Amino acid sequence: MDRSSEVIEQIREINLSYIMLAQRILREDRAVGMFRLGLSSQVADILAGLSLAQIVKLASSEQLLCSFRFNDHALLSALTHTSKHAEVTATHAAILLAGQPATQSG
Predict the structure, then answer these.
(1) In sequence order, which ranges of the chain are alpha helices (DSSP H)?
(2) Which of 57, 32, 61 has the alpha carbon at shortest distance from 44?
(3) Which architecture characterizes domain 1-66 according to CATH?
């Protein structure tokens, strides 16, 4: 298996794991799941309702389905810098994440 094929296979594995985790989180507590995943209500509905066949089909994409939410300098700094007040850092990061728009269905 060449390097490119190996990366594509790893992306597919991540996609499958991500979708299955997202479904589990949404089914356990929809509101918390939407917040943690950064999803709109419409996208949460779609993800939660996917059949196994749909999950496998979606996961087989060569594109990574999840995104790195910490693309803001302030947020990354809050999470990566050591602090004497770790609980404040976690709260600050949660506040910054809450301010990010949810993913929209399209």
Answers:
(1) 3-28, 30-37, 41-48, 52-59, 73-80, 86-98
(2) 32
(3) Orthogonal Bundle (1.10)
Task: Read off the pTM.
Answer: 0.69
For residues 89 and 38, the model is more confident at: 38
Is the separation of the CB atoms in 9 and 37 below 8 Å?
no
Six token digits for residue 6:
């190996």
- Please say whether the beta carbons of 26 and 35 come within 8 A: no
**Nearest Cα to Cα of residue 102 among 57, 67, 64:** 67
Q: Kindly report the backbone phi and psi dihedral angles of residue 83, in degrees, each rounded to the nearest multiple of 5, phi listed first.
A: -140, 150
Q: Where are the domains of the chain?
A: 1-66, 69-105
